[in-house]
Amino acid sequence: MAVRQILKMGDERLLRKAQAITAFNTPELLSGIADMKETMLAANGAGLAAPQIGWDVQLVIFGTGQIIPRYPDAEPIPPTVLINPSITVLGDELQHDWEGCLSVPGLRAVVPRAMKIRYTGFDEKGNAIDRVADGFHAKVVQHECDHLIGILYPMRVTDFSKFGYNSVLFPNLAPESDD
Ligand code: NI
Question: What's the topology of domain 12-169?
């Protein structure tokens, strides 16, 4: 395993539509996922998408299984590897919450997201995943899956008065707390 470099906004590789994965449980796939897990852990992230390390595949990881200190009211998200995902929005309720991104270090913005979604896909062995999620869990999945279609959260911002530097907006948070 190895901690990989995380690409930053402006890198064209973050703007691609990622390729579907066709072979599961291969050594290449498993070692790439291991690198992503290590990279996310080292960066203190809540999620990471393969394009963020320059890997052009439809794969995201998210969840720590623990309460995240800056979201103390959020349910823990099960650690998940999600491949070739598909999201269906359930209902028309929106949530407006702060987001950060490891590819946009130091910044944070309020982003509108669907409150409730169903997401489907596969794990690294090819087992089907089919879940309904809401709130923080739904937000994280939407953020990570956006990376697979070349969308970074600033492209979703509608109120730029709620876009700024972490250190100014949340001076009590650890500076490395991007997600
Ligand atoms: Ni991100």
Answer: Peptide Deformylase (3.90.45)
The single-letter DSSP state of residue 15 is G
Ligand 1 midpoint to CA 152 (Å):
7
pTM (2 d.p.): 0.94
Instruction: Return the H-helix or E-strand segment holding 169.
Output: helix 166-169
Distance 27 CA to ligand 1 centre (A): 26
Helix, coil or strand: residue 143: helix
Domain boundaries, the chain: 12-169
How many of the other CB atoms lie within 10 Å of CB of 16?
14
144 belongs to the catalytic site: yes
Q: Catalytic residue among 12, 75, 124, 144, which?
A: 144
How many angstroms is it from 11 CA to the middle of ligand 1? Answer: 13
Look at residue 158 and give its three-state secondary structure: coil
Dist. CA 54–CA 45, nearest whole Å: 17
Distance of CA 80 to the CA centre of its chain: 11
The string of pLDDT tens digits covering residues 5-59 is 999 999 999 999 999 999 999 999 999 999 999 999 999 899 999 999 999 999 9
C-alpha angle 71-179-94 in degrees, rounded to nearest 5? 65
